[in-house]
Amino acid sequence: MKRPMTDRRAIAPELRRIERRLMLKGALSLGGLALLSGCALDDEPAIENALASISRFTDRAQALLFSRNRLAREFAPSQITRPFPFNAYYDIEDVRTVDAAKWRLEISGLVADRRPWAIPQFRAMPQVRQITRHICVEGWSAIGCWSGVQLSTFLQHVGADLRAKYVTFRCFDDYFTSIDMATALHPQTVMVLDFDDAVLPASYGAPMKIRIPTKLGYKNPKYIASIEVTNDFPGGYWENQGYDWFGGS
Question: Of 50, 93, 151, 197, which residue is most buried, by most CB within 10 angstroms?
Fold first, then answer.
């Protein structure tokens, strides 16, 4: 019998902690003890602090290597994965839908024009199309065709402070994540309205998802409800449970 979604959410943080401890023990078996300066395997606070330090170092290193001019590989239509996999922290039967005609994107933070946006406004803007690979942290990947508005174009249009550090996405399935401004301004970071040249279906994030092919899958949020531009570090659903924040692919 399928576990209720509320139960899945409740155990997720503990699963993340277990996975991190197992990862650390694996590193220690390969000589990681020196790296952690003598942390004992049963010293959970020290282990968590060590892992957080390593994660922060990884984030800084990835940010230094990132370039807005370096593009993720794009593919031919014949290489698209069909069917494209569904992926979320819940089952496909639990997908929540909204009426696209009534949906409005809420805008907040360091933005001049904070009026909500509707789908027709996005449709009226220049559209871009990409066939890129989605890379999941769980070890699988799939190629999909995504179309919509470049996030950089939207941010400029609403007068966002492009000197701000972060852009946060909150979703109506309670998910949230955030990216640095350099990633937000990357030309392949897209506010997706269509999948495979048709209206984005609910299973893939309708009415809007954010496609970021330079990031791992958990940095590509679906079911977007709001966007915030901020200088305050916002974290994320999985990032707050131990995943790297930068999440580069």
Answer: 151
Question: Do 159 and 133 share a structural domain?
Answer: yes
226 beta partners: 106, 170
Report how far residue 44's alpha carbon sits from residue 30's, in angstroms, rounded to the nearest whole number: 19
* pLDDT value, residue 40: 55
Residue with tokens 């970071």: 189
19 closest CA partner among 133, 139, 135: 139
User: For residue range 115-162, what is the model confidence (pLDDT) as tens digits?
Assistant: 999 999 999 999 999 999 999 999 999 999 999 999 999 999 999 999
The 10s digit of each residue's pLDDT in 77-103 is 999 999 999 999 899 999 989 999 999
Residue 168: C-alpha distances to residues 47, 230, 239 (Å):
29, 8, 13
Whether the CB-CB separation of 166 and 219 falls below 8 Å is answered with no
- Give the separation between CA 86 and CA 92, rounded to whole angstroms: 7
Instruction: Indicate the residue among 65, 90, 107 that finishes a domain.
Output: 65
Q: pLDDT by residue (tens digit) across 8-33?
A: 455 555 555 545 444 444 444 444 54
Q: Are residues 46 and 21 in the same domain?
A: yes
Look at residue 50 and tell me if it is in a domain: yes
C-beta pairs of 44-49 under 8 Å, 24+ apart in sequence = 47/20, 47/21, 48/17, 48/20
**Is 247 within the bounds of a domain?**
no
> Could you identify the residue written with the tokens 């929540």?
96
Looking at residue 42, what is its pLDDT?
56
Shared domain check, 122 and 237: yes
